[in-house]
């Protein structure tokens, strides 16, 4: 498969969020003349509020409100001056109280996002390295971006994977001064905790390890003086930790806190920490409210508030244990995540809950992988026990209905999140009596005429082409050369094909979808581990083919049901083959399945344009040139025609073993020079099988010898197959030493066109890549997209950091 480029990230997010907005479950507006924390009114309907991050309810405390009101009366709505010059009168008392909470030097920032932007570029110096937890908050990752310009190495590990963390520490310890691991104390989506004891053991083992922990979701409801989850575990902070807390969320006011035990580093950050120097300071009302909250935190009352919240968290956990609701991560934090898997199920379930009078948050891409959509529920002191009981009763009633209406079940949801099922899980079947699905792992068990009715002339996936690929990519020594072949047909009760598809499961490089610079970095790592950052992928078609691998009769009344049945079968195959990713590829951008795929947990990515010459009617060179633009004719004469006499072109049908060796060498040159399409090298067996197949020819380019006593030199070869009236130059080999001087690649493209015309083919499928060169020779560019569903976003995001090296 040619290189697939991820489209603009914001466009992808925009499409996902737009779908959720259209479903009426995000971008909402609270209504009413007042808020009390327990109830919230949306679209005229009062609802119980289970979406707040003010876990202790202090934002509604009268003492904080009065303090803010008095501060505005005395000091105004803001103090418009950088804190570097002068702070307003309320700042110093607040800083003293926060210091009492932590007993370490602190800095107060406008918010945590600006705080990270202030601290990270100051604390992490040139020569250091950073390792990010995959689920560390976006604000931390965003602030880390600026380190790349300093030459700081940044890597990412799978969520809380201590083995992977130690692997990177070992790899970086001789290359970096300090190694910073950045994580959350309490993670904001699933509510799970950082493995702090394991991290402390690693920091004892590796003196270079420093920890940067964002604990804003662990603040106030946990720890001595409400100092947070991290402090509740560690009790005191060692010198190698930077800790972020918050004055907003559970603290009830506004702002964020850096706790820095290293006094020297604390001074550097205070003296020049980006937004600390150039941004406005917290408003008097926010500082006054935070001071009132700090007084509560420093009093015994904080422990009563914590106990009250803990009682409600435990009650919710107890009720969930008695239900069939798929809780993704059981913990003692106030954050809970009920998995729905499919976005369609999430939209449906949240909509039902809102109609029933319960406000809950949808967790969706990019905060979670698309297939890990779910409902994020938070418990606060505002919630009464009877509210929590009513919430669980409603969820237990509406969740099965949402599953049934969106054609999913608990088995599928649990599998999406890697959760082991229990006996109480109920499965809702999705069998469709009007349809019959058949699947096989060899094309030999499929009727040739029936298959070719769907695929002849479309690419190297007609019956003969797939039969050829099976012979090549099975029974090989290397695992990357052994593919699983999967064929699916779905027929209606009259035996008419509604859907047909060919797929492969194969070991692929994660960076196959990345640019050449990223692949270059990873290939260096593969010198030690050839299978570093590789996974089994289940894909429509294969890395060897391009085109419409999915046949769907979209005029058939059961075509959407067929697609659901097809995707369910793909889940089964994916599990069986141990694949981490499903790629449904080569769809035209304007297709009717776009919304359907998104609701089924796929995101769209841009592919390179497909190149083809259709309605091909070659008569002679003059006629061909008349179809090109004036500019393209000029290019042809200068870069192609001017060199044609240097070459001889022959179609070699039965090459000698020596010629096969040469063809393979030329193919290897292209493969090694083309990291933009970074796949495993094809086995040499492929070329010997081509020789024996009547469907393959070798369009060979010979550089004419300057002396009659010297043989012509093979400098290029186009490997060509056919499907019906379609001519398919599948891939190329060439001598790079001659390409720049003689324009070998362009000459091969032209000679391919010329040969197709001579043989009276009606279409040439040039596939992906080099679209600019192909367009100049008359090819039409067809924009294509793929739909991708991954177990998680880790590979894509980890590659993104490598890409920036």
UniProtKB/TrEMBL annotation:
GO terms for molecular function: pyridoxal phosphate binding; transaminase activity. Transmembrane segments: none annotated. Residues 76-384 form the Aminotransferase class I/classII large domain. Its cofactor is pyridoxal 5'-phosphate. Keywords: Aminotransferase, Transferase. Residues 631-771 form the BioF2-like acetyltransferase domain. InterPro entries: Acyl_CoA_acyltransferase (IPR016181), Aminotransferase_I/II_large (IPR004839), AON_synthase_class-II (IPR050087), BioF2-like_GNAT_dom (IPR038740), PyrdxlP-dep_Trfase (IPR015424), PyrdxlP-dep_Trfase_major (IPR015421), PyrdxlP-dep_Trfase_small (IPR015422). PANTHER family: CLASS II AMINOTRANSFERASE/8-AMINO-7-OXONONANOATE SYNTHASE, LD36009P. This is Aminotransferase class I/II.
